[in-house]
Amino acid sequence: MDAVSLRHVIKTYRRGRESVEVLHRLDLSVPEGEFLALMGPSGSGKTTILNLIGGLDHADSGEVVVAGEHLEKLSGGQLAKWRARHIGFVFQFYNLMPMLSAAANVELPLLLTNLSKADRRRHVEVALGVVGLTDRAAHKPGELSGGQQQRVGIARAIVTDPSILLCDEPTGDLDRQSADDILHLLQQLNRQQKKTIIMVTHDQKAADYASRTLHVDKGALAERELA
Amino acid sequence: MKYLPLVWAAVRRKPMRLVLTLLSIVVAFALFGMMIGFRASLSHLVDTARADRIYVSSRFGGGLPYAMVDQVARVPSVIHVANMGGVGGYYQNPRNNVGIQMIDGAMHQVWPELPLTAAQYGELAANRTGAFFSRNLAQRFKLKKGDTFPIKAPGIRRADGSQAWTFTVLGIVPDMETAPNGFAVGNLTYFNESRLPAERNTGGFFRVLVGDPARGDAIAKLIDQTFANSGTPTNSITEKTAYENGTGGGNGIDFPFIMESIAAAGLFMILFLTGNSIAQSVRERIPEFAVLKTIGFSDSGVMALVFAEAAVPCLAGAAIGMALATWLAAIFPRLLPPNVGFPAPYMSPLVYGIALFFAVLVALVSAVLPATRIARLDVATALSGR
Q1: Which of B218, B223, B244 is CA-nearest to residue B234?
Q2: In chain A, N or C terminus with fewer CB closer than 10 Å?
Q3: Nearest 5°: CA angle at B305, between B301 and B310?
Q4: For residue B250, what pLDDT band results from cuts at 50, 70 and 90?
Q5: So where are chain B's domains?
Q6: Does pTM top 0.80 for this prediction?
Q7: Angle value at C-alpha A120, between B297 and B286, nearest 5 degrees
């Protein structure tokens, strides 16, 4: 079964008076449990695809079905609830709250649930354990390395146990060693916890960790090679 | 409660900004509290002032002949007439201004709010140089029962040629809220008989009690009409009208308006300040709000966070500011120059309620624009840094 299905999706942005069609009747299917890498030059539409899948943006036409839900039919509030339940986001620049500890950052998505404080704490411990940062729970982001911050970002993304992880250049701000660690972690999450992962990257080495790589160019997809 | 760490983290992100904002709100609410306290105090005075008590003084100054007491008492509807004078001077040092109201026995009926018992009135009548002091005044001059209290009163000519008035402290009585600095009352006979013979039985100021409060103003007018063609025309006014005039536009000074204006200026000041502060804080954290919305926070959820962020300094500042205002109100009588009878701020529960209402209102109004901006935030655009 497909975790993500995009059919005939058109997306146009307006830049001043000019309309730029970023996605041209794009079709994409991502089966459950797949680790997909989206590559392509800047402005090709990779992040737009990710935003459409995450319900952060709307397609002008076409169908976007993610985790069994037709996103074009959901209101803003319904999309927010749906995102909280089904999607975990990992950002290039981690986007952690600098004043909160690692544990408090990871706890953020859980604030939207009805879990008790003790249960939230337990979930946070598990998530930090998965990314190997249990001993850094009390540290603020500024006290952590880039790789560690991204691990906290991943812990935040998986703490609600979403079925899909959307990663936008997750290693774009890391050195090679830290990048490999993060990619290895994502691969583990895909293989052991069966998370569907869609990762946007410029880095071929990062894409090598994925089970499939698609190239986006001028709003269209091209499958180059299979892992 | 579970969002509190998130709100608190946002509030204390810029400690210096927080401290300065908080200090400004504290000062503004201390001022606001004092002003609405004063306003409440003046309203309270008007509310408690009596319409059945008339102040009768000489229209052209100099006081009234004591013989007029009986004549005023014969005016229809008048029940009691009390006479009084005053010894104003200083104790030991010209900076220690003090005034003693010299009263007669009828004051017990006319002015029952004066906290003297019938026995104390009797004691006062029996002791020519005796005087009762209220607690605040007694504390100011460190007086106790039996002490001698000499006053130098250069404005009053005594028969013996001196300026010294010597009183014996008969006792200490409670204070009245209309005289926050304290008061003292002495025996009118002592005042009258000590003056130059030519000035005796003159210079009176009457307090008149009438039977029907609804007719107080009419009777005041009747008293003035009665003496209009006499050698000492009167100027009569009910206590309530006097307070209303004195606190609501009389004497060319509209104290309530001034106080309301100062309070409003303080509120506007903190409105702009907190509005600017919260707008700046939100502007700096657009990507963070975008992340919150990305992970599932609703538009109303992030708006609530912005409101809460504005409410924390507003409510904390208002609480500290009102505590400061309460303390200032308590020490206010001591800050006034002696014998200035301006009432202290009346810090009633309503005053605290008004302050709380405006603290919440300021938080809401100052946060409404930044919160709306965050609610309308295009997450995809914000995350891309555009």
Answers
A1: B223
A2: N
A3: 145
A4: very low
A5: 4-47+254-383, 53-211
A6: no
A7: 30
CA separation, residue A16 to residues A9, A13, B270 (Å): 23, 10, 39
Average pLDDT of the residues in B259-277: 86
* Pick from A51, A104, A109: CB nearest B380: A51
At which residue do the structure tokens 């737009």 appear? Answer: A48
What is the pLDDT confidence band of residue A155, given thresholds at 50, 70 and 90?
very high
- In the numeric block, which tokens belong to residue B347? 């810090």
- Domain membership of residue A166 (yes or no) is yes
Both tokens of residue B135?
């607690």
Among A residues 57-86, those touching chain B with beta carbons less than 8 Å apart: 57, 76-77, 80-81, 83-85
Residue A91 inside a domain? The answer is yes
**Number of separate domains in chain A:** 1
User: Could you tell me if B295 and A97 are in contact, meaning their C-beta atoms sit under 8 angstroms apart?
Assistant: no
Q: How far apart are the first and last CA of chain A?
A: 20
Domain-embedded: residue A20: no
Residue A210 has phi, psi (to 5 degrees) of -80, 160
Sheet containing strand A164-168, edge to edge, reads A87-90, A164-168, A196-200, A35-39, A212-217, A220-226
Tell the residue number behind the tokens 């999607």, with chain if given.
A87
Chain A partners within 8 Å of B384 (Cβ):
47
Does the CA dihedral B28-B34-B40-B43 come out positive or negative? negative
Which ipTM value was assigned to this complex? 0.88
Residue A60 C-alpha, separation from nearest chain B C-alpha, in angstroms: 15
At residue B64, the pLDDT reads 92
Domain that holds residue A199: 34-55+76-226
Residue A62 lies in a domain: no
DSSP for residue B195: B
Least confident of B39-48, B299-308, B347-356: B39-48
Task: Render B216-271 in DSSP notation, one character per residue.
Answer: HHHHHHHHHHHTTTSSS-EEEEEHHHHHHHHHTTGGG--HHHHHHHHHHHHHHHHH
- Asked if B374 and B306 count as a contact pair (C-beta separation under 8 A), the reply is yes
The answer to whether A197 and A23 have CB atoms below 8 angstroms apart is: no
Q: What does the pLDDT look like over A115-139, one tens digit per residue?
A: 999 999 999 999 999 888 899 999 9
Confidence of residue B248 (pLDDT cuts 50, 70, 90): very low
As a residue count, chain B comes to 386
To the nearest whole angstrom, how far is the Cα of A167 from the nearest Cα of chain B?
13
SS3 A33: coil
The CATH number given to whatever domain includes residue A95 is 3.40.50.300
How far B283 CA sits from the closest chain A CA (Å)?
A: 15
Q: Which of residues 10-49 of B touch A (CB under 8 A)?
A: 10, 12-13
CA pair distance B3, A227, nearest whole angstrom: 44
